[in-house]
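As agreed, record minuted below.
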Amino acid sequence: MTHKTATRTKAKKTVSPLTKLFILDTNVLLHDPTSVYRFEEHDVFLPIMTLEELDNNKKGLSEVSRNARQVTRILDEIVSSHADGIENGIALVEPSRKLANGRLFLQTEAISNDLPTGLPTAKADNQILAVVIHLQRLNPERAVILVSKDINMRIKARALGLEAQDYFNDKVLEDTDLLYSGILELPANFWDKHGHGMESWKRESRTLYRVKGPLCPKLLVNEFLYQEGEQPLYAIVREVSGKTAQFETLTDYTHPKNSVWGITARNREQNFALNLLMDPEVDFVSLLGQAGTGKTLLTLAAALTQVMEVKLYSEIIMTRVTVPVGEDIGFLPGTEEEKMGPWMGALEDNLEVLNKTDDTAGEWGRAATHDLIRNRIKIKSLNFMRGRTFLNKFLIIDEAQNLTPKQMKTLITRAGPGTKVVCMGNIAQIDTPYLTEGSSGLTYVVDRFKGWEHSGHVTLQRGERSRLADYAAEVL
């Protein structure tokens, strides 16, 4: 094939009707500032109204304003890299460093309003819909798709016969049932298939096994394995190489002699969680579970033991996203710690439980212990986390399901040498708009950290709060 023919084929390829045209709503850009680069070989179109709304959001110190400014900088970089006119679109290959092969189109002309009568044309959403209708008429052979994080906008578009989609790029998983649980039940015939040529040896009080078999390649490092029966087995995977895996039995935290700050594990998953929380080799722990499964209590018990007794860490730092469930109560007086006070009810409740574990101390002793403990726990707001480094700290991120993947990255990268980070939350209880179970920062870290030798994850199943709370979680 000659060079000329090759170029002609290439040119044909670029205008292939198979490439789609995506029109981006403002909330997509504000949610992910690099979203214009995330559509691979397809083209991206930005209506003038989207740019107008970006302009309205650029002032301020919030995450949204920061993202708006970043989008503007990215767009400026793209437009200034293109010497010719922008009517025919701007190739994204170079600005995106080969992430995207499509073109970026900006609305360069006024578009006549073809909206059904009754829809207010002054509304930004409706003006964007008018652009989608216009582009669909111009490109009858092409898929023209509106991308928006706003469900109402997508419903409105479909009602007008337009194709609309959510922004999927930040979704870690389509179905959260597929999310890594950190726990695997071994099949009944496990030892028949994997017992041949098995090696086992003792290390301190634990037994280690090295087995070969078809299940081994599917295992992940620090995944928990269990088998119930006459001789129950509870173990953690330590190494996986090809069809060989090495696992180690656990410390039994359900037994009172291994209690952590007076707390014992009440079920299998809590036992697994305490094994991760008490392991100094595990730097990152994520705990998922609905209300009352003991996430905060176990984490605080492990943190206090390692700060006050073993002195492995210098202090506990606790932070959480301040998203109100009801109406916002307005500004709060006091220092950063005092402002965070109302959000830290869960901390106080759990400290009360942990303080009662010492029966011999008496009331004065307990009060003194409470003061001592409170001096070693610092409550920090997420707003002041940028640029900080935590050395030798036990960092607890509560209600982590309300964080975006970007905020989660900001927080976890604060960890300096000797710091342990624990993320916990319930992805069924997201209070932030535009975040779903699939795109939450908590889902993101669980998925990205699985299999790393210094991280572990457990999904807690059983509620241990009270029979009333368990029944309510089930029927309400």
In short: The longest strand covers residues 233-241. Residues 278-475 form a domain with the Rossmann fold fold (CATH 3.40.50.300). Residues 1-15, 324-329 have pLDDT under 50 and may be disordered.
